[in-house]
Amino acid sequence: MGKLAVRALRGVLVVVLVGTVFVQASMVWTLVSGNDPEDGSVPLTPLRVITILGMVAAQVVVVCVWRLVAMVRRGTVFSDRAFRYVDGVIGAIVAAALLWFAVTAVNAPGQRDDPGVTLIMGGVGVAILGVALIVLVLRMLLTQAVSRDVEAARMQAELDEVI
Is the pLDDT of residue 120 over 80? Predict the structure, then answer.
């Protein structure tokens, strides 16, 4: 991975992290201050709590990807330590999908006249779960790469011993 790509990715990760912290702080301030302009038409308090938790999921992904990029730069990504970060990404994406389904459930009563919106929102939740499945497949590829790396190191050691 080139230096420019790493710097660009880290820049994006920093922007996402700062943005999620800002959104969380805004939501917490609104909940704590009591200056909630909720008029009852939309249940804003549950949506704000779900948003705060969704930002936590995004932050977990940012931290895990940052650690994986650092491992790539050091050439240590093909190790068992990488699995913990990949598992963190998968867990955060699944959590985000579950939170999206919660948003869909909270929003559904307001969509009685147009249930298509709820169906579309449910489809988005399924798509988010699909992203988690894609990362799971990539984890399986990492598993194969790590096992082949270990096997290659073992064979190299045997070859060095023979020579």
Answer: yes
Distance of CA 125 to the CA centre of its chain: 14
Helix residue spans in the chain (DSSP H): 3-33, 44-74, 81-107, 115-162
pLDDT the model gives residue 33 = 81
Chain position carrying tokens 């590829």 = 141
Q: Residues 85, 126, 86, CA angle at the centre, nearest 5°?
A: 5
Conformational region of residue 38, where left means phi above 0, alpha means psi within -120 to 50, and beta covers everything else: beta
Give me 63's structure tokens.
């931290």
Per-residue burial over 82-119, b = 16 or more CB atoms within 10 Å of its CB, e = otherwise: beebbebbbbbbbbbbbbbbbbbebbeeeeeeeeeebe
pTM of the predicted structure, to 2 decimals: 0.84
